Amino acid sequence: MKKGLTLIEICIGVVIVSLLMVTIMKLLGTGMSGSQKGLSHLANMEAASILMSQIEYDLMRAYELTDPPVGEKSISARWKMLTDETIPDTTATVTYQNLDEAVKRTLIEDGSTLEHTYCRGLKTVISFEKVRFTDPKTGGEKQGLWINLSVASPKKISGETEKFELKRLIMCKNF
Amino acid sequence: MQQISNPSRGFSLTEIMVACLALGIMLIPVFMMFSQGSAGTTKNRNDILAQQHASNLLAYATSMNYDDTFLKTGSQEVNEKKVNSSDGTEIDLSISEDIFKRSMEIKEYTFPGFTYAYKLITVSVKWSQTGDKKTENNREIKISGLLNK
What ipTM does the predicted assembly reach? Predict the structure, then answer.
């Protein structure tokens, strides 16, 4: 006698498959969200590191810190720097400014303006503070910047705000 | 008349268990991939933070006067460090993450008949890759700077 599946058998089968699928999907979902968080954290770290490296490279060539004034914390900074070691007296002014969803670097050299945007599309918080260390014996002074940078992914990308923070003390070498 | 035997037969428990096992084995690489990605992110994060902690201390140390008491020769642990700039601004160079251990080693080099003296400042940051404080610190970053008198 040819026998098919009864409704009860199908129902039990569906329930078992559903239970298995729910468990697997939950595990996969956890893995995927962890992976997504990791990816956005990696993107934030990469963006923050690139920006901080550029700031450090520019500060190493600085010969006069213009902004922020002493004792003030600011979302923007400006300084004068040497641009080409091979050509004497080649100078430029560089400005970093926080735009909330990016940090803009503006380089003014020979009347021409060059703009670059870092950490585009990421929530950025940056603050610059001028730091001076005076030598009590010689009266000599060293200047630099204390920089706090925080880069976070928007919620729509990571599901929650992944934040990466960097704090750097960068001292100028030219003065 | 010959009767054709066509018994209705389902899966046995053994068959179902073998299928579940096969499915489980197939899923292992997928979850391993996720955990490896997470470990890679943590590793990169720790590398960047260690570099930051080492650079900050070296930047401060190389800004000091050659004879400053902070730059005494020898080795010292510097996990906590708050400094004040000449304007009174407090800068916290302390390490906020428990997994890192930072030390600074200073060696002085003087040469007979040569007026200048040098201090070689080496800052090293050690940490455990697994993030476990009890396990041995198996990762290390070292950076050096030179200060002259």
Answer: 0.78
